[in-house]
Amino acid sequence: MDWLSLLLGLVILFFLVFEIFWTTLGESGGPLTNRIAQLLWRLLRRRGLRISHCLRSFFGIQIVLAVVAVWICLLWLGWLLIFWSSAEAVLHSQTHLPADFWAHIYFTGFTIFTLGTGDYAPQGALWQVLTAIASLSGLFLVTFSITYLVPIVQATAHKRMVALTLFSLGATPQAILANTWNGQNWQPLEQYLIMLIPELAILKQHYVTYPVLNYFHTSNPAEVISLRLAALDEALTIVIYGLKQRQQYFLQPSLLHPTRQLLSTCLQAMVRTYSIKQVQKIPPSPNLSTLAEHGIPVIAQQQFQLNLAELAERRALWLALTQETGWPWLKQQSDTRT
């Protein structure tokens, strides 16, 4: 009996069970899953700097499939080491000779994939029971892989729905405000926020639970959630720091504060996934002149820039996030629609 092989196999299997449960049922994903996703994203992004956004849209599914493939390999390796620990654990069905290493790989493979018995069979009650457990673990892996994949697909669809909803308000901060200003107050914007707050809460939870969601790219800028959230956050920044100090010009605190907090949580979750730690470049200040043309009571541009000083880190993180996903910063011109 090779006790080292047996112990190593058990450690791998216990770690894999822990990893799968944490990734599929817990929050923030398992440590191995997150590490694999980050490494693959950096590799794909480094090689795909000049690749079109259309091709980048395949990065997410590649990363998810790679994670599942690693799970399969670990399960296979763990059981292989366990069966390999005993020279007489697996015998040839006809010659009754001990299986060699490659035969053990073959036996372990068709066992965990529940393909039935082949040319080799377990010898003795203990190894027969372990073979049954190995088959059950293969079924367990398939079940939890589906449990992992289906919610990610649903979360991706929801992310794009939220992005399109935000884009319908406007592609830039100025457009959002110009399109939701009724000449006196922000009542149209408040109605949108009432609808958006629950969706942003769901989006936040998706990003916390499934960090791999960040790696699902899109070729349509209207569906890029980082751009759309940044535009909304910049629009709220203008409302808070760029308007004249009159009560009717402010959003209701019961809507403004929850929206701002949810945006902060989404930002931190995405920044953590991409491992963005140091940011130096700050995006340009939104141009208030286009808002003044629509009759919105804004302050002087110079004063607005001074007010933005306390938000330098927050805005720099939004810029770093959009650049990490391969998109340029928000346009300065307004694209209001009637």
From TrEMBL:
Domain Potassium channel per the UniProt entry, residue ranges: 81-152
Record keyword Coiled coil present: no
Signal peptide: none
Entry keyword annotation includes Oxidoreductase: no
Transmembrane segments: 6-25, 55-81, 101-118, 125-150
Gene3D superfamilies xrefs: 1.10.287.70
Keywords tagged on the record: Membrane, Transmembrane, Transmembrane helix
Entry superkingdom: Bacteria
Name of the protein this chain belongs to: Potassium channel domain-containing protein
Originating organism: Nitrosococcus oceani C-27
